[in-house]
Amino acid sequence: MDRHQRIASGMVAVAAVFFAFFGAGVAFRSDEAITAGWVGRSFGELTALLRADVHPPLYYYLLFSWVRIFGAGETAIRSLSGLLYLASAGVLYCFARRLAGSGVALIAAALYVTAPLAIIGAHMGRMYALLSLLSVLSTWLYWDRYFGGRPGARTLAAYVAVNVLGSFTHIWFFFLLFGQGVTILLFARQRTLAAAAAIAASVAPYAILWLPVLLAQQLAASRDAAAWLLPPGPAAAAKLILLYAGALLLFAPALAWLAWKRRARPLPWAGVFASVLLLAVGAPMVASLVKPVYSARFTIIGLHLFALVAGAYLARISDYRLPLALVLATAAPFTWQMAREGRCDTRWAADYLARHARSRDIVIYASLNREAMSRQRDLRVFFLYGFRPEVDEVLDSRLRLHLSRVDELCVDCDARPSYFDHIAVYGSRTTLAGGR
């Protein structure tokens, strides 16, 4: 590594620390508040909550121990994700350097560090940074075991152990294993049976310990847990490119011109990682056309693969200046965005409600309404009314705007012992068209 590369590597490392922890103390967002509430309970209560949730337990158990050492504030909880983000970048750099040298490693690490998806994972008190780290480790051991000439028992044991941890972190880790398994068929068919056995051993603990919970409780008790997921379209693909590439898109025209001018080709091993990436991310996108399981955050399982493939290509046409440009181009808008945090954030909203809302007031958080629920074919709304005619009229008009009355289920009551004397039932138009 020459002097310029050392300087660039240092700047990428400094930027990674900055991206990992800058703004970590802003108010909790979205599901982070749920995470904080859960890990603040007893271990038994946490386990009971996890048994009714769609996510596996590893991250929550890890965070459970973490907050008892460092506290349960915003900075404390997010610092774990920040450290996992740094670990992911470091492991990816080491893997890429051993694979193809410091030039490719520097570009791949810079791509990962500056990727919006990685920074989002570092800034959320959720399992995404852990999922990414385990995905990087799995890919490294997968390569060593089946392509890198290190087929020993230690590599196999480490590969299976990391995969077990990944399966207990997020369900999407199974898509990474799917991509690895199919890629073996394409590039190393003679090792297919060995790889299949290793992957089977990797998923066996989950199948024995957690799959019964998923089938018996999660799917039954949490049928709405994935209602917010929608089938991905062109906009989802465009968003994925933005979350993966980030600032790289600013330099894409110049890089494309250089690639054409130099007739550049990616390094030979890039095809393996490109195959795993396309299968691991493409399979759930296709499956989501039938049953939505896709969310852009979940695709963090493939971010390191994108960094490796892009690094294998960009190293042919660029040098240390590209990582520096990525860091600088990411730091400016990122800093500006983080500086805007705090305007009507959740901490401000909670304080406002505490000062102004009364115990009998109703708070409607419209942004959390699951629009996907209205698309279910069997949706029905039971409307009990008659006590407040002025309110009833408004609600009835709104319901009629989006739904249709199911007249045969409507009831007019003779008396009003329970503050209503009418029951109106509304069904989605898709339900009525398809029969009740």
Tell me the layout of helices and strands.
Blueprint lengths: L2 H19 L10 H8 L3 H8 L7 H13 L3 H27 L1 H13 L1 H7 L5 H19 L6 H15 L5 H15 L4 H18 L1 H11 L12 H12 L2 H15 L7 H18 L15 H12 L6 H19 L6 H11 L23 E6 L3 H14 L1 E2 L5 E2 L9 E6 L1 H6 L2
Antiparallel strand pairs: 1-4, 2-4, 3-4
Major beta sheet summary = 4 strands, antiparallel
Q: Topology as H/E string?
A: HHHHHHHHHHHHHHHHHHEHEEEH
Task: Please work out how many helical segments DSSP would assign.
Answer: 20
- Summarize model confidence as the mean pLDDT: 86
Q: Helical content, roughly?
A: 55-70%
Shape: globular
Multimeric status of the protein: single chain
Q: Which percent band covers the strand fraction?
A: under 5%
Short descriptors:
four-stranded antiparallel β-sheet, disordered C terminus, mainly alpha
Briefly characterize the structure.
With 436 residues, this protein is mainly alpha-helical. The protein folds into two domains: 3-339, no CATH class; 376-434, no CATH class.
